[in-house]
Design goal:
Blueprint: H1 2-13, H2 19-40, H3 48-66, H4 71-84, H5 86-104, H6 107-116, H7 124-139, H8 142-159, H9 164-181, H10 186-195, H11 199-227, H12 237-246, H13 255-265, H14 270-288, H15 290-296, H16 304-316, E1 319-320, H17 326-329, E2 333-334, H18 341-359, H19 362-373, H20 377-394, H21 398-415, H22 420-432, H23 442-451, H24 455-458, H25 463-477
Antiparallel strand pairs: 1-2
Helix pairs in contact: 2-3, 2-19, 3-18, 4-18, 5-14, 5-16, 6-7, 6-12, 7-8, 7-9, 7-11, 8-9, 8-23, 9-11, 10-21, 10-22, 11-22, 11-25, 13-14, 14-15, 15-16, 18-21, 19-21, 20-21, 20-22, 20-25, 21-22, 22-25
Length: 491
């Protein structure tokens, strides 16, 4: 402890960085990331962005060395940062495992199967929001939802004579609602890590702004549905038949997600809830989808060896289940725990950058300036929203729009006595959902390409996405449900 105290004294004795010195690594990082995304496109997430974060950390270290901050001090901060993410990294791995067993057990396909049956031409747009929300919550991926059911809904909407922009807006509103609230979503896991919070507490607190926003979105789409002319019928028979051929669809499968929801409500540790959900998914796969488990296990019939191999493959590595419908093949795939390694890699590299920035005093200097400009709680929230939007525009990636502001603002919120849930919620309300509204952002480019609808066409109708940051600012302006930081030891 004495050595730790002595190191802290050394940091305090160093000359305080100027705001320009503190911001220089951030500015260079954003420029490098923007160019990197321009060059690599969607593939930037496969590793090049992670390396750019390390380069950003190296630039921050050079400034630290010039200010006589030792390598040991900087690495101590990096170690603390990485250590603080241990629980979240384990949760991410377990989320990947759960998605694998929920796929092969038929849980996710059953959600899609029953969701598609609520379609009705008059309320097609609102139904599309609901369907995509259900599927996105189940899969934790707006990208997968858009590329599968989203494409099908675009086709159905076109057949009904509904504007492609309207249908795409409904699809993306529902997809990002689910992506934002699903414990399977990487951004939902990433935001509380950056803010220093806890996953399920973050999700619960996020419903305060997310639920009113989706309700307003649904009301608008219902009104639109009654004011536009439609023709034809919403024929989803082919998709339903394909799902039914590939899986044994039954309502009994919903026992598993209900158990997980019950555990979450009862405040069971997240890892325990996800582990139980994963194991139950495996058991239900053996009961209801034995043929699928055997196939994944590399055998023609189910025995102990093929069951063991099939379940473990679904938990750990890439698993796909072929159907006779090309639209569904992408949806019927899961990457297991291995699929989460990219996000884990991103988090670790972000913690290196953030740790060095913290160690050289850059984050505290930036925070001090931000607090100086943000005289009120609303000002702090507005600064966070603005930073997330700016990074979505400049760095062109929603992950970075969460990582960089999250690390920069976490101390500012703490200094104001605000709980980390305030920051993590704001990061998602402004960083996650608005990425799809930027044409050159990876999310905007992806969804626009997949759905075949330009960002300009669906921008206005992606109501949930542009309304979310407005809602979070309204809550901040009127002091609605602003959670205060509880001091250690207090009740």
């Amino acid at each position: 402890m004495k050595n730790k105290h002595r190191e802290n004294e050394n940091i305090v004795e160093n000359r305080e960085l100027s705001i320009w010195e503190a911001l220089l690594p951030v500015v260079i990082l954003v420029c490098m990331l923007a160019y990197n995304v321009f060059v690599f496109g969607d593939d930037a997430l496969n590793g090049s962005n992670q390396f750019i974060l390390l380069l950003g950390g190296a630039i921050a270290a050079v400034i630290g060395f010039r200010n006589k901050v030792s390598y040991k001090q900087m690495m101590a901060e990096v170690a603390e940062n990485v250590k603080s993410t241990t629980g979240a990294l384990l949760i991410l791995l377990m989320v990947g495992a759960l998605s694998g067993t929920w796929l092969i057990s038929g849980i996710i396909p059953s959600m899609i199967y029953y969701g598609l049956q609520i379609l009705n031409p008059t309320i097609f747009l609102a139904a599309s929001v609901i369907i995509c929300a259900i599927i996105s919550i189940a899969t934790g991926s707006s990208w997968t939802t858009s590329a599968t059911v989203g494409i099908a809904l675009i086709g159905i909407g076109d057949a009904l004579g509904i504007s492609l922009g309207m249908t795409a807006g409904a699809v993306l509103s529902g997809a990002y609602f689910g992506d934002k609230l699903s414990p399977l979503s990487d951004t939902t896991n990433l935001a509380p890590v950056m803010a220093g919070g806890e996953l399920f507490s973050h999700i619960k607190y996020m419903t305060l702004t997310t639920v009113p926003t989706i309700i307003v979105t649904l009301i608008i789409f219902i009104i639109l549905g009654f004011t536009i002319d439609t023709g034809g019928t919403a024929d989803t028979k082919a998709i339903l038949v394909s799902i039914d051929k590939s899986f044994n669809i039954t309502g009994w499968l919903f026992i598993v997600p209900l158990v997980v929801i019950f555990l979450i409500v009862k405040k069971a540790p997240p890892l325990l809830a996800l582990l139980i959900g994963t194991l139950l998914g495996g058991v239900f796969a053996l009961i209801f989808q034995p043929g699928i488990v055997a196939t994944i296990g590399g055998a023609e019939s189910l025995n102990f060896a093929s069951a063991y191999k099939g379940i473990l493959n679904a938990i750990t590595v890439n698993t796909s289940i072929a159907s006779d419908n090309a639209t569904l093949n992408d949806l019927f795939s899961s990457k297991g725990m291995a699929g989460m390694l990219g996000t884990i890699w991103l988090i670790i590299c972000a913690m290196v950058f953030g740790g060095i920035m913290d160690g050289i005093g850059a984050l505290s200097r930036i925070t001090k300036s931000l607090l100086g400009m943000a005289k009120t709680t609303f000002g702090l929230f507005a600064s966070t929203v603005g930073s997330c939007l700016a990074l979505n525009v400049t760095a062109s990636d929603q992950y970075l729009a969460i990582v960089v502001p999250g690390k920069m603002f976490s101390k500012a919120y703490k200094d104001r006595g605000l709980a980390p849930e305030n920051l993590s919620r704001t990061l998602e309300d402004s960083g996650t959902v608005t990425s799809v509204l930027i044409p050159w952002n990876t999310c905007g480019a992806y969804h626009s390409g997949v759905l075949g609808v330009g960002v300009g066409e669906y921008f206005f109708y992606a109501i949930f996405n542009w309304l979310s940051p407005i809602t979070t600012l309204v809550f901040a302006a009127f002091g609605i449900k602003i959670k205060q930081l509880v001091a250690s030891g207090s009740k």
